[in-house]
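Now for one record.
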Amino acid sequence: MDFIDLKTQYRRIKPSVDARIARVLEHGQYILGPEVTELESVLARYVGTKHCIAASSGTDTLLIALMALDVGPGDEVITAPFTFFATGEMIALAGAKPVFVDVDPRTYNLDPALLEAAITPRTRAIMPVSLYGQCADFDAINAIACRHGLPVIEDGAQSFGATTRGRRSCGLSLVGSTSFFPSKPLGGYGDGGALFTDDDALAKLMREIRVHGQDRRYHHPRLGLNGRLDSLQAAVLLAKMEIFEDEVAARIRIGARYGELIREAFGEEGVVRAPHVEAHNTCVYAQYTVEVDDRDLVETRMKALGVPTAVHYPLPLHLQPVFEHLGEPEGRYPASERAARRVISLPMHPYLTEDVQHRVVEALASAVSG
């Protein structure tokens, strides 16, 4: 059993992938070639923004956005502590201080009710994460940010294709960022990412930063980085976009089926807690993540039954050794810490069959009951 099945998807789109890759090999423009320009147009249209800036990874995109907003030493950027390390890492690499706000225990996304108390005169930006494939509460977050004159950057690495109140992830704030890491809802065959904005000046800055800060060849008015996207990755992503809406619908359908099976097996308030999706949201389930007691034991038992699992993420950012200097003790962010102890992700991809889902939930029931 595959945790994520990329082979079935490739077989489905093989003719398009192979043809598009062959065209890149023929024209030889391997970096920022015509496929990258085409991809940016396709993605901007899909998200509903004026601009898309394709880049080298969903990590680099966060740094590019922060640099474009002139975030640096002495500044603070607010984010959630329960996320992949890159979110806090890029804030620190920009020279700023990560300031954490605990998550809503139902969605694992930054809790807007706790946000305003974390804003100080040094706050320069807010970077909410749309974790596990569900958008954070951007209506509430943007309203608070607007009152304080702060830009909002969505870390939508896991939520591309998700919606909130009919609007798509990455088009919900001043800047949206996503990842095309292979396991993501829209994944390449290597690293990649993209930025989205309606702001013309900001888009120009981010494009320049992506290419070593140059505004024309060998002319560098600012520092940047090597954040370019390969044409081969753009070719793969263009082929995948041909079926992406169908895959998003499949993810939503498979996520709903998992929820039904888990409720049947454990009841509404059972020992396994299925993901909570807000009524106004859709979720693309970059991971299908449940909560259990004695997670390590459940993980071991499911492995013995031939069912792969994963843990995203076992140690919140404020407890990572590199951030020890921030002085955030254990117990400071209880919802994040509790989630980190209890979450476990089940196999999830658009080609998961009903039979396999039954096997997964039966194994989960066996692992939980012992």
